[in-house]
Each structure stands twice: as C-alpha cells, then as structure tokens.
Amino acid sequence: MRSPVVKSCCVLFLILFLSRHYSVSATKKILNPKKPCKRFILHYHDILFDGNDVANATSAATANATKLGNTDFGKLVVFDDPMTKDQHLLSHPVARAQGFYFYDMKTTYNAWFAYTLVFNSSDYKGTLNIRGGYDEGEGERPVNCRGDR
Questions:
Q1: What are the distances in angstroms from CA 58 to CA 50, 80, 81, 108, 134?
Q2: By the 8 A CB rule, do 75 and 59 touch?
Q3: Residue span of the signal peptide, if any (predicted)?
Q4: What is the pLDDT of residues 71-90, one digit of tens each?
C-alpha cells in the first residue's frame, strides 16, 4: 500500500508531464498553405480634422492638449478610420477602425488606443476589439495576432 505522499507525487508528476506536453504541442502549429489563413496585414489611415478638411477627415480631437509638456499630452481623438490591405488611402477598405486614442506622456509622444475593427464586406465579417499603448517614436510597427481556429 502506497502512502498518500507517494500518490500525491505521482499525480503531480503526471499533471506536470501532461501540461508540458500539451503546451509544447500547441506552440508548434504549422500553417497549411492550402487552408484559409486567418492572418493578414491591415493599414490604418487616420486623417485628423484641422478645421479645413471636413470631407476627408476621419478623426477629430475632442479634447485639446494640456500644454504640460512638449507633446500633445492630454489630447483625446475620436476616429472612424478606413483599414486597407495595402498602404494606399484610396484602396477599398476591408474594415473600419472605430474608437479613440489619447496622448498619455508629457516627455515624448506616446498614445493609448482603444478601438473596434468592424469588418463588413463580402470577404470579412465581424468585429475585433483592440486596445493598448503605442510609442509614436518607434514609427511603423506590425501587430502580430495569433489565434488560428
């Protein structure tokens, strides 16, 4: 007859072994080129209203900068921006980015975004919610989304 300690150790070892096995196998997913890919690149086009471009503007500042630094600290912008598959503004949008961002650092340009990508075309339907910080000093950078079904 085994003691409860030995049984507990065996169960713990089995749980650790299975969790390691499943976590490793989940990260080694290889994309099949014959199946539809659930990853693609989108380009965000933001045209901030400056008082003259009503027809072309896709966003507007709803709170002005606070003048507490050399940045736009405190400025809040609401947007409804087109998202395209290429870098051209006039390309057919595959989604709309609808939400807001605000500048949240006094020492450098840094923004925090919260928006919903609204897909409503024959190829793509549905929504995707995104939020998080963005350091404008880093320039263009890709966002990696993983989640193949």
A1: 11, 5, 5, 24, 19
A2: no
A3: 1-26
A4: 889 999 999 999 998 888 88
pTM of the model: 0.62
Give me 39's structure tokens: 């990853």
Range 88-93 average pLDDT: 88
b/e map 46-61, b = 16+ CB within 10 Å:
eeeeeeeeeeebbbbe
d(CA 128, CA 17): 35
